[in-house]
Amino acid sequence: MKSQLRSATLLMLALLAGTEASLYAGPAVTLEVSAGKHDRQQTVISLPVPEPLQNQKQLTLVRLDDGKEVPVQIDASGSERKLFWILSKPLPAGTSRQYRLHAAQFTKPAEQVTVVDDGSHLSVKVADKPVLTYNHAIVKAPKRDESYYDKSGYIHPLYTPSGKVITDDFNPDHAHQHGIMFSWRKILFEGRENNGWDQKSKLGKVAHSQVNSFTGGPVFGEIDTSIEHIDLTKKTGPVTMLNENWKVRVYALEKQFLFDIVSVQKCATEKPVTIDKIHYGGMTIRGHADWHTNHGYDYLTSEGKNKTNGNQSRPHWVEMYGPLGDETAGVAIFSAPTNFRSPQPVRLHPTMPYFCFAVASLDPFDIQPGQPYVSRYRFYVHDGKPSQEVDQRLWTDLAEPPEVKVISGP
Fold this sequence. Notes:
The protein is mostly beta strands. Helices cover 10% and strands 42% of the residues. The chain has helices at 2-23, 289-294, 388-399; strands at residues 28-34, 43-48, 59-63, 69-70, 73-75, 82-87, 96-103, 113-117, 121-126, 129-135, 154-158, 180-183, 187-189, 192-194, 204-215, 220-231, 239-251, 257-267, 273-275, 282-286, 298-301, 317-324, 327-335, 346-348, 354-357, 365-367, 373-383, 403-408. It has an eight-stranded antiparallel β-sheet, covered by helices on one side. A hairpin with a 6-residue loop joins β5 and β6 (82-87). The chain is globular, with a radius of gyration of 23 Å.
């Protein structure tokens, strides 16, 4: 069997070699993706662009088992150019698949993921389906005598693939909880206590600062924004304590939505910022208003816990789900194993549809000048009932991605 597979691969390489001169310009390399111990499906694959292709503006990827072209996208925003694609064809545990990566003549690839800025919001769609909206302009509180709840720098609405809104904003019960947000409840800065979570306290706020960039593409769309954590207690006026950068990357999956948020928080002054001990605050999501009204929501964690026994546990992931219309829908958040104090404690509210990764519930910690606080979370939004098997597979893709290597050069 192995010899037959090898012969088929060599034949495909030979056929491709005969067409490269006419279809592709420049060098090419062969890549191999190994599933490892886990089945892979709809898995995001990435690797640094191989050296022979580093200077190419556009690349084309072809599967060697069937000769099909696979959409790829280059991310040039970091210190090294990285190549991304999605493993749409399942790859069983213990197996591998080979690809030929070519330099190609430049043509603008079709954007499966699009991002549009209307002057107030950055709206992301996959195949013309709305996924999420990031609010960079101030969204005003419905009650104008509660203008302290005005908010920017957060995501709402978040949609399911069937178009249902799954998050909430300005719920009268807790109007300071906004879709997907990142706020600290208890901060010590220059000896003063600050609160960026509960806006009614008027001790602090978290607000959008600027849109740095946004882009669509065949594999992902991304928005890059800056957010400020502002102290409102200083007698001489507001002062920014933390400068935060959000990179929100939405992948080109239609039947379920998958996106990453990478948050980098840096001291805005030469003074450290202390995140004091408290049982909530951090990366947070507020679920649909109907779930609050009828208490029809629940949680599922990587440890199999729910809203009766999961609070302050330390799972790798949490899913919140409940009825939306006539169907069930859910949103899961996976905390990357590289995150501070991983696996992070969670605040799973037993009577209100919100949860957060409450890293400060263990002990206080400092964010020091020159030492950024980096967090990465992956979000999965779906229609239908939750599946522990699917959630665990997605967690494994994040924590133990497939191995990708270059096995032959030009």
